Amino acid sequence: MRVFPGIRQAAALVTVSVLLAACGGGSAEDTRPLDSYSAEELYNRAEFQIEIGEPADAARFFGEVERLYPYSEWAKRALVMQAFAYHRDRDYDASRGAAQRFIDTYPGDEDAAYAQYLLALSYYDQIDDVGRDQGLTFQALQALRDVIETYPDSEYARSAILKFDLAFDHLAAKEMEIGRYYLKRGHYVAAINRFRVVVEDFQTTTQTPEALHRLVESYLSLGLTEEAQTAGAILGHNYRSTEWYEDSFNLLTGRGLAPEAQGTSWLSTVYRQMIRGEWL
Q1: What is the DSSP string of 136-203?
Q2: Among 74, 196, 219, 247, which residue carries the largest CB count within 10 Å?
Q3: Is residue 224 part of a domain?
């Protein structure tokens, strides 16, 4: 992101004036009306508020830059920094609003990628634990995808990719949690439906090996040995070194079965795709 000339010097002056005001019980600087400040003074006062850990005040001063000096270069810069300040204050709705306004107003600006990234973070940083509704996770995924696809060469794309993968894994973990809940209570068909979602829709996540093992468990509990063997075969082909394959192998061989593709179930289709090199 760009740095305006004179910012450090101006920030130092603001720091001195604020300290003097604090020590002297108030000063002319402390009581000046905001419209008497230049755009640069307001901007740097906002930056100082961030530095001392007052992001809400920073957001207010960045907003004053935009209000008092609209369409100026300082106003443009202040808008994206206001989104940052709101995010630092965990006011995610306000951060998202400021970021979106920047994107809408300055779509071609070099800071648009950062604004889009802040918008995505406003969702991502609210992702709750696995046990809660995952609506925000879906929104985070879409917003992160926008960063990746719209600004692939930006410095934020790599971070967005990493966060996208984590959010994607988060959704898969939610499916696994529900599947395990059903499995423990003997609701095998409901459990299978959840584990199938992970295998088919979230196969690049870290949840897939366990999902395949739980399918082996579920199908064996229902007496569907061909499906259990096929799930074990997929697990062995892709995750042979994991504890999940070892557990599945022991379950199957303990019943005189082998982890190998059998029958014509949906798992057989997955297995054939894997053999053709289309798996993962």
Answers
A1: HHHHHHHHHHHHHHH-TTSTTHHHHHHHHHHHHHHHHHHHHHHHHHHHHTT-HHHHHHHHHHHHHH-T
A2: 219
A3: yes
Distance between start and end Cα atoms, the chain? 36
Among 20-24, 162-166, 175-179, 209-213, the least confident range? 20-24
Last residue within a domain, chosen from 32, 62, 96 = 96
pTM of the model: 0.75
Domain boundary among 35, 66, 96: 96
CA dihedral 270, 272, 275, 279 (to 10 degrees): -30
- Rounded CA separation 47/61 (Å): 9
What is the secondary structure of 215-244 as a DSSP string? HHHHHHHHT-HHHHHHHHHHHHHHHTTSHH
The single residue listed with the structure tokens 């300040």 is 85
Q: Per-residue pLDDT tens for 57-115?
A: 999 999 999 999 998 999 999 999 999 999 999 999 999 999 999 999 999 999 999 99
